[in-house]
Amino acid sequence: MKKLLFTAALVLSVGAFAQKNITKTVGVPFEISYPDNFKQVEGEQENVVFQIFDQPNDFTLYIIQDPIEDWRETPLFGSAEDVIKHYNSTAIESLERNSALKIGDIKTEAKNGMQYAYQNFEGDYKYTDYDDNGKEQTKFSKYAYVTVGIKTAKSTYSVYSFCPVKDKAKFEKIFKTVVASIKEK
């Protein structure tokens, strides 16, 4: 019986540490949970209030927050769909215009007093690298983007993740879990 209780306690404690739960206090404070094998990165991009990275698998997720109290006289975004259209336009523009470019429709839903707008897209990301002789080379990587715009009574959030196309299904599950964990304080 003691062995069974110890095993159950061990399983529960391992499950409890599989996710990190933190509260971000910039703008509108919010809680978020993410897998503990991800590293939180600070200061990588302007306007990003939260970013995690899984380096071995080349997966990045970041959040941009626009608190409503910071808006000037005119509202920035009327809906979650406005949020996603605004922020996705830049990311989509960074991809090559070729047969690899696939842009999904925007899907919207409302739950628990929050508006959500989801959009996935993928394509070739062009970058410069150097060969063994130091000669500049243009290369392409196929990336999948899983994104959501969220609008609450206090703020809007743009949540982006990107990873190699081959790993999209795996990381889409993680993305949905992280997004579902966002709770304003």
Jot down its keywords.
3 helices; disordered N terminus; 3-stranded antiparallel β-sheet; 8-stranded antiparallel β-sheet; 23% helix; Protein Transport Mog1p, Chain A; 185 residues; alpha+beta
Give your account of this protein's structure:
With 185 residues, the protein is an alpha+beta fold. It has one domain: Mog1/PsbP, alpha/beta/alpha sandwich (Protein Transport Mog1p, Chain A, 3-Layer(aba) Sandwich). It is built from three helices and eleven strands; from the N terminus they run αβββββαβββββαβ. The strands form two sheets. Strands 3, 4, 5, 6, 7, 8, 9 and 10 form an eight-stranded antiparallel beta sheet that branches. Strands 1-2-11 form a three-stranded antiparallel beta sheet. A hairpin with a 2-residue loop joins β7 and β8. The longest helix is centred in the first third of the chain and has 15 residues. It is globular, with a radius of gyration of 19 Å. The chain starts with a helix and ends with a strand. 28% of the residues are buried.
